């Protein structure tokens, strides 16, 4: 019965096809023609003038991405943990935090921090004269905070599921071996939860990369801001944006490939 | 200059009315974009599962591209390019150009972005429908459209709803990005109100509460729909 | 199943087009979707008011055009014009050589000097020497951005670019930047507001007409001479019949048209 089902042509999954089938070759040819037309008929003469600034922008974007994702993940672990096992006030606080951050647009949070909180800070002379002011004057701490909080909230939700999903038996086995609560957390619970959360981490990091251009709206210079500058200098509508899309496409591709490499190095049972 | 809650009252000098109008615009965008995304998603999922090889590859390119490029960049590209392209095509076909309103362009942009994600969600859901059910529909001689309407779509709904409800929440938040192209939705009118009155905290917090309310109410409705769609499904373990 | 896909695709295209086609042909007049007093700013009922809105209404009435005010993001306003999202720019845009390569302009309809403001507590001049080591805020894609980059770029600590003028003013008031360069008339409105109490005018910058342009004009698409002629005739007419002075008096106690 099941044999017959899978024999129907409509249900063959589209994977496992060669890259060099006739229709793919045809599509690739069409694609090459489009790229060729884009190079020939659109204006790209501005590219050399902005090369250095673009590289700097990409570097800033990546820096922003990895720092916020790294620290955000470190925050996500306690946020996930207290929701599973913490005392109820902490669990509630963590849940409310996740709901609020995930329920409002990042752009709004960013502007609230930069324009709202930033203008409040400046009203207090104590803050203005403190050693923190040179940092609070700049834009990137606000962008950094907003991105980090957002990543912590989204990943915290994932970590909650991951902590809750670690089989009870493993934790009980650890206890039976006489592990203290902390050792059990460090040696069994945390590694297993992180392992479970790893597949989603790749997706969340890509989402985080796609959120980084928002910081350009509060005057942080990243690759998006550089391209905006090009748009304003040259009055071109499409070319800079197409290049920007291409840059992000490459960054996403590299990220995904990197995570796949990482996942392959971590042994999984079965498979 | 009025202060505090007075600024949020519904009639001038309060800006509450403006904020609510912005919220309505945001919701219109979200609903329109979400529905357009669903239509694209159904088409895309069917195309990916049953279409010819070229169509499948093209759809693969579409979903990969859209999901790899930041929404902000896509919105900028599509907002200008989308309307331009429609007019160019109309000119080529010999029609007069049309005036595409900001709302239509906004819905188009959100719809195209949502379409890529809902294609993937729906494809997964259709694949989760036992093949025998679809074959039974064919065996009874149902034409493809009828089978889609009567069998495939209802049967895949329980599998699709978690993904689709997530997409709805993303759609409501993605509308905020249209502030960057100057579309007067909630985030932009908030920024204008905050800039005009210098009460930045008041307005950003108020807008945050409005967005949060939309999310929380959506969650309630989604829970209801989920229970409704799961009737007759075996309980998951 | 192929038929299904084709049908849905056709429906989507038709739906999008029909949705947009519902509106009649009008002249969409674009301006920056941000508070830019006293020229364009939203009031608490969501309506746009200001000198430039009055000017637009008078000019459109004179030219018998059905104008629809269309607020749009400033940094995308020229692409919006060239991609036909709007048909005209009445947004305090200076007529410059650089912009004339891409779009066309009507005759000027007002002129403004360029000023620099800074905190009251600090004394400096609007010269490259005075701005040495300072962080200067400007709005993106304005003549001020170009001017500041050209004249102050080598000496200033940083030229910070903002999407809207309002944000630059806000950051000046919040102490995040040391100076703002902008149109003197718009800066005057900022200094008179509560938020502007922190700061005062440090002076007007030295003229550089190659960068600062020759007054403010209505931005138009290239090749639309018919519309351009209408607009020019209308500006001339409202200048001659006194309408221009009547609504200008509501906002300014000097001649904004300039020499």
From TrEMBL, chain A:
Q: Which domain of life is it from?
A: Bacteria
**One Pfam family of this protein, by short name?**
BPD_transp_1
What are the UniProt keywords, alphabetically? Cell inner membrane, Cell membrane, Membrane, Transmembrane, Transmembrane helix, Transport
Give the Gene3D superfamilies listed for this entry. Answer: MetI-like (1.10.3720.10)
Segments passing through the bilayer: 25-44, 56-80, 92-114, 241-262
The places in or outside the cell where this protein is found are: Cell inner membrane; Cell membrane
What membrane topology is annotated for this entry? Answer: Multi-pass membrane protein
Task: Say yes or no: keyword Protein transport present.
Answer: no
A GO cellular component annotated for this chain's UniProt record is: ATP-binding cassette (ABC) transporter complex
- The record places domain ABC transmembrane type-1 at 58-259
The record's annotation in SUPFAM superfamilies points to: MetI-like
**Classification via PROSITE patterns:** ABC_TM1
The Gene Ontology biological process annotation of the record reads: amino acid transport
A GO molecular-function descriptor: transmembrane transporter activity
Q: What's this protein's family per the entry?
A: Belongs to the binding-protein-dependent transport system permease family. HisMQ subfamily.
| Classification via PANTHER family | ARGININE ABC TRANSPORTER PERMEASE PROTEIN ARTM, MEMBRANE COMPONENT OF AMINO ACID ABC TRANSPORTER
Protein name per Swiss-Prot or TrEMBL = Polar amino acid transport system permease protein
Tell me which species this is from.
Xaviernesmea oryzae
The lineage is: Bacteria, Pseudomonadati, Pseudomonadota, Alphaproteobacteria, Hyphomicrobiales
From TrEMBL, chain B:
Report membrane topology: Multi-pass membrane protein
Q: Which domain of life is it from?
A: Bacteria
Which keywords annotate this record?
Cell inner membrane, Cell membrane, Membrane, Transmembrane, Transmembrane helix, Transport
Q: Which residues form a coiled coil?
A: none
Species of origin: Xaviernesmea oryzae
Q: Tell me which residues make up the ABC transmembrane type-1 domain.
A: 23-222
A cellular component annotation (GO) from this entry? ATP-binding cassette (ABC) transporter complex
Compartments where located: Cell inner membrane; Cell membrane
Against PANTHER family, the record matches this protein to: CATIONIC AMINO ACID TRANSPORTER, MEMBRANE COMPONENT
* Protein family according to the UniProt entry: Belongs to the binding-protein-dependent transport system permease family. HisMQ subfamily.
Q: Which InterPro entries match?
A: AA_ABC_transptr_permease_3TM (IPR010065), ABC_transp_permease_HisMQ (IPR051613), MetI-like (IPR000515), MetI-like_sf (IPR035906)
Which Pfam families does this UniProt record tie to the protein?
Answer: BPD_transp_1 (PF00528)
Protein's name according to its UniProt entry: Polar amino acid transport system permease protein
Bilayer-spanning residue ranges: 20-46, 58-82, 88-113, 151-171, 203-225
State a single Gene Ontology molecular function.
Answer: transmembrane transporter activity
TrEMBL record, chain C:
Q: Which locations, inside or outside the cell, does it occupy?
A: Periplasm
Entry-linked InterPro entries:
Solute-binding_3/MltF_N
Give the residue range of the signal peptide.
1-24
Cell division as UniProt keyword: no
| GO annotations of cellular component type | periplasmic space
* Top-level division of the source organism's lineage: Bacteria
Q: Which residues form the Solute-binding protein family 3/N-terminal domain?
A: 26-255
* Gene3D superfamilies (UniProt xref): Periplasmic binding protein-like II
Annotated Pfam families = SBP_bac_3
- Major location, coarse class? periplasm
**Claim: Coiled coil is one of the keywords in the record:** no
What are the UniProt keywords, alphabetically? Signal
Q: Which PANTHER family match?
A: ARGININE-BINDING EXTRACELLULAR PROTEIN ARTP, MEMBRANE-BOUND LYTIC MUREIN TRANSGLYCOSYLASE F
- What is the designated name of this protein? Polar amino acid transport system substrate-binding protein
Q: Which organism is it from?
A: Xaviernesmea oryzae
